[in-house]
Amino acid sequence: MTQNREIEAKTILSKTVYQNIVKAFPVKADFKQENYYFDTTKSLLKHHKIALRIRIFKDHAEQTLKVPDLRPVQSKFHEVIEINDKLELQQARSLVKQASNDEEITFTGTVGAYLSKHFSTQKYHLLTWSKTERILLNGPENCELTLDATSYPDRFEDYELEIENTDPALIKKVLLMLEKEYNFKQTNSNTNQSKIGRAFAHQD
Q1: pLDDT of residue 54
Q2: pTM for the whole structure
Q3: H/E run at residue 44
Q4: Which residues is 55 bridged to in the sheet?
Q5: Contacts by 178-181, CB closer than 8 A, 24 or more apart
Q6: What's the confidence (pLDDT) of residue 180?
Q7: Which InterPro entries does the entry mention (predicted)?
Q8: Which end of the chain is more exposed for a tag (fewer CB within 10 A), N or C?
Q9: How far is residue 48's CA from residue 51's CA, in Å, rounded to a whole number?
């Protein structure tokens, strides 16, 4: 189990800007992930601004809760508390298969304990999903950049830059450098758009 504060600048990019940034910096890692999102039938978690997912990689998996940070350390960037439990790959695929058959599933581990403590229900449904190719780059100021190309159930695709760091000042500095160099700008429509929200917007 891990629990950490996540501070990040999230910006939806055009495909061209995304490709230009990917070409410009050394690649640290490149991998694919499947993202499966869960809630109750009455959207209890959404009402409390909580995201619940199972994420599957090539050789491992995890279950994650993202919950509001009640004591944020800054106000400009996206900030949540992230709770993660590792899952065996076969266990994760079995849970997703079960949920894909419209069965309720129960979460265990630290994620399950949090849900049990804060909500009376322990049964959750698979509501939507997305698939992402993630590229990690060594960006300006030795700051890691995350570039995501994501597809959704309705075949829509989008491209996103994430700059995650414990130092908000560094996030701001790097973001401004990239905006100037690659001619994009954060706006209300392209900033801090959650993947789960986009997955719900692009269901079949």
Answers
A1: 98
A2: 0.94
A3: helix 44-47
A4: 35, 62
A5: 178/21, 178/139, 178/140, 178/145
A6: 98
A7: CYTH-like_dom_sf (IPR033469), CYTH_domain (IPR023577), Uncharacterised_YjbK (IPR009195)
A8: C
A9: 9
What whole-number distance in Å separates Cα of residue 172 and Cα of residue 29? Answer: 23
In Å, how far are 18, 70, 80, 161, 169 from 49, measured between CA atoms?
Answer: 28, 12, 10, 22, 26
Number of folded domains that form the chain: 1
Both structure tokens of 14: 């055009």
Q: Residue 84 maps to which CATH number?
A: 2.40.320.10
Q: Residue 195 corresponds to which tokens in the numbers above?
A: 């993947």
Task: Write out residues in the chain with pLDDT < 50, as ranges.
Answer: none
Task: Please provide residue 160's backbone torsions phi and psi, each rounded to the nearest 5 degrees.
Answer: -140, 145
